[in-house]
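User: Please predict the structure of the protein below. I'd like the answer in structure-token form so I can feed it into my own downstream comparison script.

Assistant: Understood. Taking the following sequence of 534 residues as input:
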Amino acid sequence: MRYRKGKCDLMYVIEGLLFLSSWVMIVNGSIHEYKDEAFIPRFNSFFFHGGSEGLYASKVQDSPLLVSDDSNNNNNKPINGKSFIRFESIIFRRTKEAANKQNEMQQSTGVVEAIILEVKDRNEIGGSYLNSDAICCTPALAKDGSCKVGEVIIHQDPENPGWPKRIQTSFEGNSEEANMVFHNVQINKTGMYYLYFMFCNPELKGTLISGRTVWRNPEGYLPGKMAPLMTFYGLMSLAYLILGLLWFLRFVQHWKDIIQLHYHITAVIGLGMCEMALWYFEYANFNATGSRPMGITMWAVTFSAIKKTVSRLLLLVVSMGYGVVRPTLGGITSKVLLLGVVYFLASEALELVEHLGNINDFSGKARIFLVLPVALLDSCFIVWIFSSLSKTLEKLQVRRSLAKLELYRKFTNSLAVSVLLSVAWIGYELYFNASDPLSELWRRAWIIPAFWTLLAYLLLWVICILWAPSNNPTRYAYSGEALDDEEEGLSLTGSSVIVGGDLSKLDRKERKASITADHVFGLGEVVLEEDKRE
């Protein structure tokens, strides 16, 4: 029982460290910089989390560990196709009091270890296999020669010799600083890798670390979980370009019949094209340099926030029947604009934190304060959109405008499907994050943000199809017919009765529409037209 308890406790500690690190380290680039960072005590050790990223195996095999004092020489070597973690200018500084206690002539007066491990090997760190919950080797554990006193206990993986990787740096004499020799650790196996700097000597308490590590995948510096997004944004840029060209051709073909709503749709398509192109170039630059380009990222974040805001406002005004059952928004214009401005500010703040925040700037709790306002505002949009749709459908029922009623029914069904998909995807996202706290499924993580981008694109396609410019704009344009206020309370559920029972009594007029023209955007529906009956 003692063995099981010790092993279980240590596993919880190691997994706790990894989980804490995955939340605290909001990776802003493949270059992890350390500026006088402190070590945190855990059991009989002190540790500092140096970074964690998904890395693919090198396509070009080389010596697994290159060590050299000449960093320039190593930097000039070809790196294409190689995956590695490189230590650059790492300096450990202990306190002056700790240094003065040491013998000036002693060669090693304290050791700091850099431990690189794949997340699946987390149980190989510490003394769980030695019936102990210690992380550092003790004199009792060292008796059988399984570990050395003052070092972190590591059980080597028999299937992957030399891993987890240990790199030691020693303080000499009574020196306050220890410089880590330049190291370039090549990655020959795909996995999620964690880096820790650790020491076991309590006299080194108060030691600080400075310098940086560079993490690289075979195709560039993008972290493994972000690499597929560069290709995705490139494809989405092409998709928006195709949609923009088709919309432009339709726009030019029927430019005399354009209504105000078409200009709003055009603006959303243009913003989408710019957003996807900026994200692609931002990721491409990130992949080439290892750091996020501040200028491009700022523009991408801003365009993303603007596009999200304008898209939601477009859905809202369409749901209100703008240009269809009402020529203007009237007195609610200011409320709509206010909601849009507030949403833009909240979305911009969240995007800036996620994409421009430094590695240790924001914890999980701090991020929640920025996520909640956006989530609440999204809920406001959804409630307002569906309540407006309900009122618009009722008005169209009363007016017996069958073509417009059918149009809005299709729009309502499309929105309902998108909301159901969103709810289902949020549930999956929560399950994904809860079941993978250590990012072991990092190769699939890119589909989470990609889904929302794809859903927004498909919904824009639906709007473009339903409200495509045509030579018969009266089928959805505002015609100024009067509304009988006494009939405004008609139940939406009675729509089928009206459509079915009174069809023979409906007025019909102007069968001028060219149905073939509607097929450019997939409009196959037969437009019901009305005849004025005096």
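That's the full token string. Residues 96 and 436 are 43 Å apart (CA to CA).
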